[in-house]
Design brief:
Elements: H1 23-30, E1 40-44, E2 50-55, H2 56-63, H3 68-72, E3 87-89, H4 94-103, E4 113-116, E5 122-126, H5 128-215, H6 222-238, H7 241-273, E6 281-283, H8 285-300, E7 304-310, E8 316-318, H9 320-336, E9 342-350, E10 354-361, H10 368-372, H11 391-401, E11 405-411, E12 415-423, H12 424-433, E13 443-446
Parallel strand pairs: 3-4, 7-9, 11-13
Antiparallel strand pairs: 1-2, 4-5, 6-8, 9-10, 10-12, 11-12
Length: 448
């Protein structure tokens, strides 16, 4: 595409008139093929400086009058020209020139505009249609540039969201690995103990096998048989059947308990991620709370007391893995807001049209300045390297995409409360469509 950043491409070389040219001569020139595309002709003085424009509309107005040609035909063009035409220098920026022309543009368009060089000498004419076409080309270029920028931004946003998801996944996997280590540890210990306890049984079995072999061999002498009997008896005495049975029972029960814990964690992780489910599903929001609590247990146990006040909820059609991500983010943020021990209170309730969920902590809270920016991308109060500043921004977008609202209230030294509201019908529509609803998200922030 040609460069439209300069005005030279708008220049149309048109021979200028002198002020003494007759109006009849101007009319004749307008009939020439080379001038058919122009609405006006330039008038210049002896040193090629513009002194006016004469438009064909002005000539038509004159000649349409009674005896107009007879009265005006021999008059010089200086009598009827526009002495104050629009004059632009060729070095004028395109945007400035376009603004000047369009500011003076009237309908119908009756005149062109004059282009001059740096010394103010006439160089040619510029036509309004040509200018408008150039403006359209410039607008197209800018739209294409904006489209490319938008695509790059979308790609960058997707990469950032994926990075945050991977960071959250890393934290979650670390917590799950820590949780799995405990039951895996004592299951492994129990296996070692079972191996140790079963050693005398294997020794007894081997001694009895030898004794059986001697008893079945007619050629066995009495001394070898006596040694086999003594070995079998010693192996039998080494096995305390009552104690061994009780130890086996206890170890197997403990091992079974550990395996159930591992199964619970794996099942919770599967429910949390919803890897085996459709992207959208009818779920009980309380189940999402329980799944998030199971995954966040490593960050909460030992110092944070979680209190639940969960009421019965109607099924909510949503993207459960995304809602779980929001809840895990809120729980982890609440835990990190407490320097020591603390309490997290989770409530859920519903009305005819909406499901509500609040997560409240008694941590250190936030100042009004922090509260105003809490949902901004990349904003974080955590030390460098400990947070991306995308967690709450992504949570905000997920709630928005479900047609919901998220509100936060906080007071320094008192704690923070997040309230999520998801409309039942709108959430279902958004989940099915996979896009944000038409109505904008209402994000409310309260300082107290």
């Amino acid at each position: 595409m040609a460069d439209i950043g300069a005005l030279e491409h708008l220049l149309k070389p048109v021979q200028a008139l002198t002020p003494d040219v007759s109006i009849d001569e101007v009319a004749r020139r307008f009939l020439l093929d080379e001038h058919r595309a122009f609405l006006s002709l330039p008038v210049v003085d002896a040193v090629q400086r513009p002194c006016g424009l004469i438009s064909r509309y002005r000539l038509q107005d004159i000649f349409m009058r009674r005896f107009g040609r007879e009265l005006w035909g021999t008059q010089p063009v200086s009598k009827v020209m526009n002495p104050a035409p629009l004059v632009l220098q060729l070095g004028t920026p395109f945007e400035t020139a376009a603004a000047q022309v369009t500011t003076r543009l009237q309908y119908p368009v009756t005149e062109d505009f004059i282009l001059v060089d740096g010394a103010g000498r006439y160089r040619g004419l510029g036509t309004v249609p040509h200018l408008l076409k150039a403006m359209e080309a410039r607008l197209l270029q800018r739209n294409q540039a904006l489209q490319h920028t938008l695509e790059d931004l979308k790609q960058s946003q997707a990469q950032l969201v994926q990075s945050e998801k991977m960071a959250s996944l890393g934290q979650m996997v670390a917590g799950i690995a820590h949780e799995l280590n405990t039951p895996l540890g004592y299951v492994g210990n129990n296996v070692d103990l079972l191996r140790e306890l079963s050693a005398p049984l294997f020794a007894l079995n081997e001694a009895l096998a030898h004794l059986s072999a001697y008893l079945g061999d007619p050629a066995t002498d009495e001394e070898a048989l006596a040694h086999a009997l003594e070995a079998a008896d010693a192996a039998r005495r080494a096995v305390d059947a009552g104690t061994l049975a009780e130890d086996f029972r206890q170890l197997l029960e403990d091992t079974d308990y550990g395996l159930r814990q591992i199964s619970e964690l794996v099942g919770g992780l599967k429910d949390f991620s919803r890897l085996d489910r459709a992207p959208s599903d009818d779920v009980d929001l309380n189940d999402c709370v329980r799944a998030a609590l199971l995954i966040a247990r490593n960050n909460l146990k030992g110092r944070v007391e979680v209190r639940q006040q969960l009421q019965a909820l109607p099924p909510l059609r949503c993207a459960p893995s995304q809602i779980n991500q929001v809840l895990l983010n809120l729980l982890n943020n609440a835990a990190q807001a407490m320097d020591g021990s603390g309490i997290i209170l989770i409530k859920s309730w519903a009305d005819e049209a909406q499901v509500h969920l609040s997560v409240e902590d008694n941590g250190k809270g936030m100042t009004p300045e922090v509260l105003e920016r809490i949902f901004d991308p990349f904003f974080t109060t955590k030390p460098v390297g400990e947070g991306t500043g995308l967690g709450l921004s992504i949570s905000y977008r997920i709630v928005r995409d479900h047609g919901g609202t998220i509100r936060v209230a906080s007071r320094p030294g008192r704690g923070t409360r997040f309230l999520i509201t998801l409309p039942l019908r709108r959430a279902a529509d958004a989940a099915e469509a996979g896009a944000a609803p038409a109505a904008p998200l209402q994000r409310e922030i309260e300082h107290a």
